[in-house]
# Entry
Amino acid sequence: MKVRVYTLLQGIVMGIAEIIPGVSGSTLALVMGIYDNFIEFLSEVSDFFKDLLKFILRKESFKSVKDSFFKISWNFGIFLVAGMGISIVLFSHIISDLIERHPQYIFSFFFGLVIASISIPWNEMKLKGVREFAIIALTFIVFFVVLGLKPAIVDNPSPLFLFLAGAVAICAMVLPGISGSFVMLLLGVYDHVIGLIKDFTRLSIDLNKVIALLSVVAGIILGFSVFVKFLKLGLKKYPSEIMAFLIGIMLASLRVLWPFMDVSSLGSENSDALPKVLPWEIPGTQLLLSVIFIIIAIAGVVVLHKISGGNNTDDIE
# Structure
């Protein structure tokens, strides 16, 4: 029972991270030492959906579907997913309000969190040669440019577009350093999806909203069914290269999470895109508080990683 409660709490932490554009729940999975379990669980669920589809197409027996179902690590997966769902439902309002009112401090905390978390995949790298450093550099450059793109705005996205957005976003969710919520922000559907979740929690739903939510969920299912297999294979065959790739993404994500910003227009119509500035260009009190939040996050990662016993991607089968 203690393990299940702990897994539930880990899911809640991952869910909170996923709400923040620019932060990946997988980053927290790395910190908490459950990234391998997380990938294994997603892979097992992927196998189940694959066998289920084959069964529907009459290319697989019901026994195979049943075997795939019972191979899933439900004791881990149910509580982790439940925790993520609870945090998204309960904290989406709170996090949204905090980002609107105090973005500099929220981003400071997660900026420090990502900085400290980079050491984890670095320590997981068995090889640290020219190839690994080249992967880090190339990945950083590519994602630094991508993450600097101006977010789109899509009014009333179609179910098909929401389906595709969900599929792409889930791929980001399983990669430490880039969040599914930020991908949705780039695609212009973040506010729409958060709005749907809020309406659902308020029981303000209709058929169109249900279809929209189901489209996102269906895209998520398809996305992870395909992508997780590639990631798992990469972690088995090329662990150092994959870790280098993750480090590059995490470094690039710091562009999104840069916490030093001019908040003079906060609360106005133009506060959605607060200008990023250098640390010494902001008021002393704001700088001090931002640094404190960064330090708290770094200390939190160190303590949490030590308590968890560390991460070991060698456990991936």
User: Anything to note?
Assistant: The mean pLDDT is 81. Residues 2-315 form one domain. The radius of gyration is 20 Å. The first helix runs from residue 2 to 19.
